[in-house]
Fold this sequence. Notes:
Four copies of one chain form a homotetramer. Chain A has five helices and two strands. The first copy, chain A, is mostly helical.
Amino acid sequence: MLTLDLNSSKPLYLEISNAIIKLILNGTFKARDKLPSIRSLSKSLSINHNTVQRAYLELEHRGFIYSQSGKGMYVKDNIEKLCLQEKSKIINSFKDKMNDLKELGFNQTNIIDIVKENY
Amino acid sequence: MLTLDLNSSKPLYLEISNAIIKLILNGTFKARDKLPSIRSLSKSLSINHNTVQRAYLELEHRGFIYSQSGKGMYVKDNIEKLCLQEKSKIINSFKDKMNDLKELGFNQTNIIDIVKENY
Amino acid sequence: MLTLDLNSSKPLYLEISNAIIKLILNGTFKARDKLPSIRSLSKSLSINHNTVQRAYLELEHRGFIYSQSGKGMYVKDNIEKLCLQEKSKIINSFKDKMNDLKELGFNQTNIIDIVKENY
Amino acid sequence: MLTLDLNSSKPLYLEISNAIIKLILNGTFKARDKLPSIRSLSKSLSINHNTVQRAYLELEHRGFIYSQSGKGMYVKDNIEKLCLQEKSKIINSFKDKMNDLKELGFNQTNIIDIVKENY
DNA sequence: GTGGTCTAGACCACG
DNA sequence: GTGGTCTAGACCACC
Lengths: 119, 119, 119, 119
């Protein structure tokens, strides 16, 4: 279901929540969809269930999902705006890296060349 | 001398060491140049001297600088290769972010537009 | 757990890291073993926790261990090559001292006698 | 006159004083011999004269030489005992390194083999 | 509980 | 004045 980079320096729970956000952003999970249960996901990923719970808590805090006690976790109804914000974050992060290149002396043409060569 | 992003989630000492690496990469600091002293830099940045030393320790471990006890910190002699490696890292990091955009559905033209609008 | 030479002129954190390297080299600590926690070690050695952390940082930079934030410090997986290099260093250091004796006029037999008397 | 390891991690003044001690131990400088003047030595080594003075001060503190104001520095008269002590230090330093090998699991025969192969 | 960061302030060694 | 070490104690993030 999810592919995680276990060698990442980022905390595991963020790896999980980010992977799920990606699935929401690209439409794999849609509004009102039920997410896998904490137990089943922790089992299939072979990790502690507390870590999965922390990931879901993160998604809840960030407004992507909500929990219905005793039933499970669901993707929220109106997430279009949130998804746009999330996409903005990713774009800004791209711009930051572009700025790093700028600081190293790359001009616009140099950067566009890198994009063309690597897309 | 240095411009730091104090709102970053990254530790302060890494902000400092990364800022100095950028100055080395863009030629502001050249091989054998003397870096600002730990105490003077900590004073001008209004931070603890231990934090600056931690930043310099990082730069030393990564091979960019060396210390002469009682004299000061200096940029190493042969850093061309290291600078190339570091630049590669930054470019790859840019490519990763570009890939994130790709996964969100941006095509090459979209991305080039972002570059043009934000450079 | 560790035996330190507190009268040494070398910094305390290096005494600690070197003592741990010896334990890794002689097999007391094996790959993937968990090292004593920073706080527990600092307590049992009656020294500040920052000093122990500096020792562990040194071991991390030298490639012997890695840290898992919130869990603990662990001996790295593939350290055979590193251990061989480290052993070479120690042997070379022994040879250097042997050479000092040679320069003072000791011949091979004299030196072997010292070894026999003091092993 | 003197050969120094400028890349050493040890302070320069100790490099100098140790080099001179070696020359005393091997008989190049004998009791009552005049040492090179601070000025001439600092010039021929291309280093600060304060550093040479610090080295001579070290030798004076350790009892190898004495200064005759206005005339120069001279090797002391009765240095046999001191030379023996100095040799003991070097031998003990050798024993320490031998002990390092012991801690790594080398037995007496192993160590003697290293001596035979490398003398 | 774990490691990681940061501060404040002390003392030492070197040039 | 320089860097280097060490302590004491604080707060945070993660599991």
